Amino acid sequence: MGPPLPVVGFRHHLTHPLVFLEVLCSPGTPGIDLRHVRDAGRPDTELQLLEPLALGAWAETTSRGAFRPNRSAPTLRSGWRCHAATDADLHEALEQLYPGALADWHAWESGTATATSFREFVGRQSGMYRVTQDLSDAGADAAARAGCSRELCLRRRCWNTPGLGPDPIEDKDGHGLAIPCLEPCALILDLARWTAKEQEAPPMELQLTPGELESLEKAVRIALDHPPEELREGSVRHPANPRRLLLLATRLRELTSRDEDAVGNKGT
Questions:
Q1: Separation of alpha carbons 118 and 135, rounded Å
Q2: Is the pLDDT of residue 154 over 90?
Q3: What gap in Å lies between CA 75 and CA 4, rounded to an integer?
Q4: Per-residue b/e over 234-260, b at no fewer than 16 CB within 10 Å?
Q5: Quick one: pLDDT at residue 175?
Q6: How far is CA 118 from CA 190, 193, 237, in A?
Q7: pTM across the whole model
Q8: Rounded-to-integer distance, Cα 131 and Cα 195, Å
Q9: CA-CA distance, 93 to 201, in Å (whole number)?
Q10: What is the maximum span of the chain, computed from C-alpha positions, in angstroms?
Q11: CA-to-CA distance for 212 and 40, rounded, in angstroms?
Q12: What mean pLDDT is predicted for residues 20-32?
């Protein structure tokens, strides 16, 4: 029995070093060298040598020890290298780092992939997640923009929301091979559930000066760049959840634009 078809297809592309999300894959003789893209120029002696099966445990946590609920987030720890002597080793290594990503890439590459729209996805939900079916079109669009932001996930969104088409995807992007996301993930589902509940809450009236609004936008950016130690990214209940903060950042930008438009209209 030969290696799985996805890795065979991937090996055809490996005529030169390629980046797979955050992993630099470099063909050699024999096998493939894998390491974090940030370690591209570091000597092998400075990197911890890991077996393919050990990469799963390595990828579970960030550099600060926080659990990584989304393996495609740009938070993979650097400082390691792995030698994949065979195609089977290469498949195992990538599967440990990014479960399902190679298969999704191969399905998209071969034209057999089918993306699931947001409405179709939430239409299947029941129990505590049934409320996601009540999320407004604007709320669904906002959840996708925030939850699928490139600073939170390196996959390319191939599913659509009522007002958003799929992200453009080509054979490659600036990060290397473009890896598709074929349906909303559990993190998006949780964000959609939280957003659906929030849209039922009565809005609060809050008056801010332009300077105060600017400071609030800056505070949100600082919170995104420096998350608290106790933050669990997978918990949307935490007020510092990065997806909630990106939703808030979008709302603040909307308020800023609205105020600027109002000032411009007064001057005409």
A1: 11
A2: yes
A3: 27
A4: eebebebbbbbbbbbbeebeebbeeee
A5: 47
A6: 13, 13, 22
A7: 0.87
A8: 10
A9: 46
A10: 74
A11: 43
A12: 92
